[in-house]
Amino acid sequence: MQTRTLGSTGPAVSALGLGAMGMSGAYGEADRAESIATVHAALDAGVSLIDTGDFYAMGHNELLLAEALRGRDRDSYQLSVKFGMLRGPGNEFGGTDGRPEAVKNFLAYSLNRLGTDHIDIYRPARLDPAVPIEETVGAIKEMIDAGYVRHLGLSEVDAATIRRAHAVHPVADLQIEYSLISRAVEAEVLPTLRELGIGLTAYGVLGRGLISGHWSPGHTGGPGDGRAFSPRFASGNVEHNLALVEALRRVAETKGCTVAQLAIAWVAAQGEEIVPLIGARSRERLAEALPAIELELAADDFAEIEKAVPLGAARGDRYPAVFMSGLGVGN
Length: 331
What we know:
two-stranded antiparallel sheet
């Protein structure tokens, strides 16, 4: 497995990371044993960066990872953890909390659930509009100084917020959605990251499965699949978006790879500071994704990919309307 460094101050991590959210019901019921086997397979393949959030099924994901990582050398992997999203017992979202006292409270619970003495990269999942980012980052800096956190990360914030946070403590990376159908990061955020020497961990590189090459109209992950509320999967939009996937499939066929591999390789090729997160929850999907980092794309390939999926071609927002206002950039 190739490695990449997250910015000028961040850790060296595997060139592909594993996003664990789907293992805790975000896309319908997941097989616990298969999820754990997938984590093991990823580690065995050299994947070292594992991403989670303390609000993924209200701590379920952290407990799952604790079980999967038990017995592994703690220095052989890096844990990236998001915090601050409030949830209710009915699984409803209740806003964000970036207060310094909340930061330390969330961290204490995550350390316990994960069964570790430190988090490698700790980040607020969303900006709390009621708390200056300097206060939230200041609390994380205190935890870094105390040894509970190794690096500061951010998630889904704009360029101005990145600059304000970075002035308090060096930011290792920004986690944000980035894919062939979600490219808003390219306008201001990505140039800012490069200017400041900050890495990018890209989630949603397969559009939550939409551009994986495995989705079809009417498909569903079953009860609890959050994609049922996603505008890009809605009737009228999904058909248009899947037509883009078929155009991309024709490019993939000329490269002798799958649609998913081409989509992942495109993100990875946008810069050495970018690490795509693969949301695989089965060994089969993981095995398909891993070769993508070895796929080389030439100028002609980029041109053909752009023809298949032009900038801004996707139909529908990347989140339901209620969540779009909390994002630092749009689609």
